[in-house]
Amino acid sequence: MAARTVYFCGSIRGGREDRALYERIIRELGRFGTVLTEHIASPALTARGTRGRGEDLGDRFIHDRDIEWLKEAHVVVAEVSQPSLGVGYELGRAVDMNKKILCLFRPSCGRVLSAMIRGADNGRSVQVKDYDPADIEQIISEYFTVTFPSL
């Protein structure tokens, strides 16, 4: 079996307030496979999706690259507390591709999770977990070792 690949979704243009949390999540995901989207946690990544050195990959390039990574991934993990059109789009595409999906939502953020995300939880391929940041490592570990050890 090929090495497990993980596609992590987190807000970029929707807001970078959770970047440090994304870093923790990605670090933990890295224990269970190759994270294709490690750049999401980079402190150098701007809200435009560039690394702040004047580079502009272009929207088409970013879209096409990310869709290819999404196709390659065995599992999709999304932090959905910060509303993001891009994350919603990625999740919709992942559902269409029949990917295993774990959505992580922090009730302490003060928002209400979209019904389109929470309502997609079918207890099997799509799961939505409310969590406290102190428990993120345990939740991810449980997902890969108990819920889907064959991933």
Description:
With 151 residues, the chain is α/β, with parallel strands linked by helices. Helices cover 35% and strands 15% of the residues. It has helices spanning 19-29, 59-72, 85-96, 115-118, 136-147, and strands at 5-9, 34-35, 75-79, 100-105, 126-130. β3 (75-79), α3 and β4 (100-105) form a beta-alpha-beta unit. The longest helix is centred in the middle third of the chain and has 14 residues, at 59-72. It starts with a strand and ends with a helix.
Which secondary structure elements does this structure contain, and how are they paired or packed?
Blueprint: E1 5-9, H1 19-29, E2 34-35, H2 59-72, E3 75-79, H3 85-96, E4 100-105, H4 115-118, E5 126-130, H5 136-147
Helix pairs in contact: 1-5
Short description:
The chain is α/β, with parallel strands linked by helices and 151 residues long. 35% of the residues lie in helices and 15% in strands.
